């Protein structure tokens, strides 16, 4: 794919590609999940790259208004192409991904539609989804308010049932109850699933979802009683500013009773509140779904940053050998490798755990349909934990990739500033990462207490059942090579995670109350949750390697990357491993030695390993990450696109610069 995009020009990275010790096409299949996935992704990426409407090279230079209009244009054109080409859902999804511009369609497809699917009755789904699927209405997910985001139970918007008219009265009683943040709400959405406190017969039944029409389908003006607008500019140029995150206040707006999403609970014609036999946590089901998709987004964002930094690192040269030999490619510096290759390994690790999480989510959904709710807590813990760990690591890594690219990484034309700005909020939206890790910790504390009372844990906590061994085992690693053994790696990660969780549980039990103990121990609980989530990622990577992986040398490269992922975590969190007694200081330094050897083995494959992500130059959007490595010409060309370069003498010269210079000249002559 990328080779086609490159169009036969000189390949400055050809030497790098020639040193690869594996079949890049085979790796593309391992990355994408199947040959079919590679083929569909290629087709959609080409479709986007070859369509002038989807150009994005001057996006960071547009004003907010221009950017927003450009987003509307792209979204409408994407829909037109979707219909004209009869794209499948899989193809349409990829089309949106490669367009690579946040917009209202994200909320419509990823939150509005799933919220109705998950919380609406069959009748409601039939009515609303029929319109949503045809884009006759545009929806968003209006949960967060000015005063509350993390604490969903603290939302203040009210939905009071009026039996005299069979309607709900939707109202924002305070300034802090204004809806604040929903994407697409500001200027685009015609409808929303609005979360509000349900009040009937004088009683507050807590948060429920309601479908509301917000704007006229004739002229797009807000309906009576609704004040609505955009919340203002956000971090970075271009980036998330293409999205109209909105504010909304409701002044006693009436909606029919049947617009309450009634799968989980109903209000009868008389105003009686009736709860279904499904757990009330299903109200949070849309968030579980989206958190799962965000893990895949994180691996994609991280792999883009790594692709840019690796290719550029192979082109960029600084300093020569003392003997006056050729200058060194910065990628050959060991410090560069030890900073960058863990990100390369993490990109693959997150990709594979994301594929597994998608499977887990599908499995849980099927169980829910047959009224088996037993796996819901684990699904919540896994999606919350993996969303948190992968997005935090990704945001940090993109920032570091900017530094790895030196000064040029700081230019918009490197693609990194926008990538960072678009992915940074993933640490906050769909649940602040710390808040979510505390949810994981809560699940772990419950599991520890169940294990203590003799219950055998299952799924991702099954290892906790091996408590006798894991609480006292010592790693058998004795040589650098021993760290190549997946069983030895898994054992220390399991022991670390379990011991950290058990320590927390023991310390909580010493507190006056469970609640006080949990609050006091929360920093430790967050670390225990991270240890558990990292164990899941390492385990899923190891399990991936047990699958049939085709292609010359592909499995061997993945084994090295898996080793790097696990060992860099041991190096980074050595304090945890030492303090819980899982490894000794000597074993820690053997792990680091092994890591250095793995970096050296990956080095000749680095460019091919990022080629396997199969990104077009259009999608990558980076002068530094171009497939052909022609970095300097690209940087030079990009600079001239800047509006400042439209004139040789800048605007403002006559008013501000000329008088200043003249004045100073006059003074100096006095
Ligand atoms: C054909 C055409 C196709 C076209 C295709 C186009 C495709 C377009 C592609 C787009 C790609 C782009 C994708 C990017 C999209 C990203 C957009 C993001 C926009 C952002 C949206 C948002 O941010 S929405 C708002 C999100 N808000 C939050 O996440 C809030 C976080 N807070 C909470 O979740 C909760 O309040 C809480 C969990 C922190 C606490 O809740 P609460 O106080 O009620 O709970 P407790 O702690 O007391 O727990 C009670 C009990 O419930 C359990 N629990 C909690 N949450 C869940 C859950 N989610 N699921 C299951 N169980 C849960 C908890 O563990 C407790 O259990 P116990 O057993 O009692 O312990
Ligand atoms: C780009 C973007 C898009 C968004 N899109 C939408 C959308 O479409 N629809 C929607 O409804 N919402 C949306 N949101 C809102 C988002 O879901 C919330 O911002 C998010 O859930 C975090 O909540 P908060 O802002 O209230 O943070 P807060 O909870 O106020 O967090 C502030 C700080 O307090 C800490 N904190 C909070 N609670 C605890 C605790 N219990 N223990 C320890 N520390 C705690 C946090 O870690 C954080 O450091 C969006 C947000 C962003 C940034």
TrEMBL record:
UniProt binding sites for FAD: 144, 183
A Pfam short name: Acyl-CoA_ox_N
Needed co-factor(s): FAD
Transmembrane segments: none
A cellular component term, taken from the record's GO annotations: peroxisome
Gene Ontology BP terms: fatty acid beta-oxidation using acyl-CoA oxidase; lipid homeostasis; long-chain fatty acid metabolic process
GO function term, MF aspect, one: fatty acid binding
Domain Acyl-CoA oxidase C-terminal: 485-662
Keywords: FAD, Fatty acid metabolism, Flavoprotein, Lipid metabolism, Oxidoreductase, Peroxisome
Coiled coil: none
Domain Acyl-CoA oxidase C-alpha1: 284-445
Cell location: Peroxisome
Active-site residues, record numbering mapped to chain: 430 (proton acceptor)
Chain ranges of the Acyl-coenzyme A oxidase N-terminal domain: 23-138
InterPro entries registered for this protein in UniProt: ACOX_C_alpha1, Acyl-CoA_ox_N, Acyl-CoA_Oxase/DH_mid-dom_sf, Acyl-CoA_oxidase, Acyl-CoA_oxidase_C, AcylCo_DH-like_C, AcylCoA_DH/ox_N_sf, AcylCoA_DH/oxidase_NM_dom_sf
Principal cellular location given in the protein's record: other
Similarity comment: Belongs to the acyl-CoA oxidase family.
PANTHER family: ELECTRON TRANSPORT OXIDOREDUCTASE, PEROXISOMAL ACYL-COENZYME A OXIDASE 1
Protein name: Acyl-coenzyme A oxidase
Species whose genome carries this gene: Triticum turgidum subsp. durum (Durum wheat)
